[in-house]
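no rush on this but wanted to send it before i forget. theres a chain ive been looking at and ive put its sequence and its fold in token form underneath. please have a look and point out which stretches look like helix strand or loop to you. thanks a lot i owe you, the record is right below:
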Amino acid sequence: MSKFPPSRYSSGSSQRSQCSGAAGSFCRTSSMLTGVYSAVVLLYVLVVFAIWCEWPQVLGIALMIIGMIVLAALTPVCGDAAYPDCFKDCPLPAPYFNHHALFDTLFAIGL
């Protein structure tokens, strides 16, 4: 029995993930493409605001981009793959505050 509360992301859950089976490949690819597209748009907007010398907006967009990088970088050690080993390699206090919570916090501050 795990000391962590059950989660809809855990492998022992009776619920099926929305990205499983044949649709899983499309779902993961679609999510990745959406993230890359969002990052490119944010980078473009960052450059435009930098040219206009709108530094508060540049800082906000930079925080949003940093949040996206943190999410991508920490997913292997703090995401679904970290459940079997109880998040030993995750530098965050997962599962209570994981990589996605940090992404959401940085993105919200950037907005």
In short: Residues 22-51 form the longest helix (30 residues). The chain has three helices and no strands. Residues 29 and 92 are 26 Å apart (CA to CA).
